[in-house]
Every structure is written in C-alpha cells, then in structure tokens.
Amino acid sequence: MDEMLDVVIVGAGPTGLACGIEAVRAGLKLLILEKGCLVNSLYNYPSTMTFFTSRERLEIGELPLPSLNVKPTRAEALEYYRRTAEYYHLPIHFQERVLTVEVGECDFLVRTARVDGQGQRYSARCVILATGYYDLPNLMGVLGEHLPKVSHYYTDPHPYFQRKVAVIGGANSAAVSALDLYRHGAEVTLIHREQTLSSHIKYWIRPDIENRIKEGSIRAYFESEVKEIAENWILLERQGKERVRLENDFVFALTGYHPDFDFLRRVGVEIDPETSRPKCHPETLESNVPGLYLAGVIIAGLDTNEIFIENGRFHGRQIIADIVRKVKSTEPAVVAHGRPARDE
After folding, report:
1. Is the pLDDT of residue 334 over 90?
2. How high is the mean pLDDT of the chain?
3. Rounded to the nearest 10 degrees, what angle do helices 74-87 and 14-25 cross at?
4. 206 vs 325: CA distance, rounded Å
5. 219-234 burial, b if ≥16 CB within 10 A, otherwise e?
6. Taking burial as the number of CB atoms within 10 A of a residue's CB, which of 35, 142, 232, 332 is the most buried?
7. 1 has pLDDT over 70
8. Burial of 237 (0-12, 13-18, 19+ CB in 10 A)
C-alpha cells in the first residue's frame, strides 16, 4: 500500500473509463482496477456484433469514434476504447479483482487479488463502483445447467455449424444470436417462456426473427421453459403441462444478467428489496456510504435496460464534480496541448 489516492475506480468499462478521464482532468490521484481486460464486457460480446446506437453516443472524453458506418462494430469500439485509455494515460491495473472495500473513518481500504495469487491493498478517500452487470447471468436453476454444453454468453457461430442449438430467451440478444447461428448453418430452436417475443427487440431485428420463425427456418417454442438439460437432449415444459424432449448439442441460455448486489451489500450500500436499486443521491450518485459512488448500470437495479453506455458515460462528470468539492489533489496533473502528460 503506497500513498493515499483520491479515488479508486472499480471497473474499466466505458463508464469507468469516463470516470477516470474526469478524475484526470480534475487533477485527482486515481487508480482503475479491472478484474479482466479493458472494456471486458464488450470484449465478450459476439465477434460479429454491431452496436445498436450511433458512434457519437459511445464517445467519451470528447474524442471522436472513427467508424465506417453510423453504427460501430465491436472491433471498432474495442479499438476506440484502447486509444482513449492511451490518450488520457489512464492508470489501470488489469486482471486484478476487488475482494473487499472496507470503510474507515475518513478513507477506504480496497483489497484485491491478482491472477498470480498476490493480494494488494489501496487506500483512497473515495471509491467509484462501475462494475456493470454482465458477469452474473440470471440462472434458470434447472438440472444440467452447469454442463459444458451450456453457455450464458454468445460469441461466435462457426463451432455450431450443422449442430442442434437451443437459444433460451426472447429479448434482443436471443433474437440476434438465433439469427446469426441460423445463417451460419446451425439448426436453431428458440425457447421463450412468454407468449410473444420481447418488446425490447430492435425494430430492424424483429421482422427478421419473426419471418424466420414463421417460415420454419428457426423453430420456436413459446410459453415454454427448460426443465432439464442432458448431454444430448433438453426437456421442455409447454404451457405448464406438456413435456417435450428435444435432441440437442448446445444451449445458449440468454436469460439476462444482474449486478453483484451481494458485493454492494457487503460494502454497506442499501438495496431496495423490490427493485434492487441501490440507494444513491440522484445528482451526485453518492451512495448511502459517504464517499462511495455508483456509476453506470448498477444504479438501475434489476432494470438493466434503463442505463447503457449512452447515458452512463455522463456519470463521471456528476461524481467527480462532487469528489472535487470534497478533496482536491495537491499536485494537479500537468496538461499539454489539451491532454494529460505521461508520468515519467
């Protein structure tokens, strides 16, 4: 444990990076801790993914996002966030998971673990949690869910050519994955517990998935739930009574994700029992724990469709403005030509 930091930011996604940029601009001593790689959630998105929003709404730090099209690809976004982190010289520790955040009288002690098994400790006046929600899938709680053939993340269609693949879910991710698998030669079955597809499916995706289902290119079971998963089959229950066993090679359970509420509770953040929204000030985004701030989608609780990169990227301005009012670095960052200079 070295000098006292002004702020530790947990998470190096777009929102965490945006918080880091504002902290650099304010001359704060900061450190960003990331358990995986830069923008780890985006990295784990499907390799062929195209964003549903325009490039300017993904930009942070007032840097333009170069893209051949209005809607950037995953590869373009990854390149952009790499260049942005380099441009602002953001101090990031990768592959370092935060284990605990202990509240002291006037500061926080952040304990971490690196992939080499070594533990680290950091002392900071303030902490920003920008941990997202993509790491914790909503489990179905059925027998066989933890088999190697089951995944809660869809990446690339090629390994599933001429294989029987079940996609569980009816929202946008399930629709996009089912279409991608079908177009790359998989035999796709879509399983959804509701009567119809979700209203969250993007308007240009909906007619495509509906037409593929209508023509029989993608088989669909609505009002159906998976009750058991085995090595070469899955068992469905339709409308709460009929049981159907389907031959199956792979399962993509795209049933959504949720923030790490248990971690928030351990830190002392109050969670609404009905909505799972953590308690925080609407303007400063400071939680009920003084000096502990929340940024990005974790603010929305279970309503993960409320906050995206488009609006979460502005949280850094709100948070850092409040932190600056509390603690100002005694050695402001040196700035040259509008960008912070690299520490030698």
Report:
1. no
2. 92
3. 20
4. 47
5. ebbbebbbbebeeeeb
6. 35
7. no
8. middle
The full set of domain ranges for the chain reads 5-135+257-340, 150-253
44-64 pLDDT, tens per residue? 888 888 888 889 999 999 999
Question: How far is the C-alpha of 137 from the C-alpha of 62, rounded, in Å?
Answer: 33
The answer to whether 5-135+257-340 and 150-253 have equal CATH topology is yes
> Which residue is it, tokens 């058991």?
228
The token pair that represents 109 in the structure block: 């002690």
Task: Identify the CA nearest to 9 among candidates 103, 80, 108, 86.
Answer: 108
User: How would you write 194-247 as a 3-class SS string?
Assistant: CCCCCCCCCCCCHHHHHHHHHHCCCEEECCEEEEEECCCEEEEEECCCEEEEEE
Could you tell me which of 282, 279, 281, 274 has the C-alpha nearest to residue 264?
Answer: 279
Instruction: Give the type of residue at 8.
Output: V
AA letter at 245: R
Give DSSP secondary structure letters for 70-134. Answer: SS-BHHHHHHHHHHHHHHTT--EE-SEEEEEEEE-SSSEEEEEEETTS-EEEEEEEEEEE---ST
Answer yes or no: is pLDDT of 329 > 70. no
What class, spelled out in words, does domain 150-253 have in CATH? alpha beta
Residue with tokens 């609780």: 301
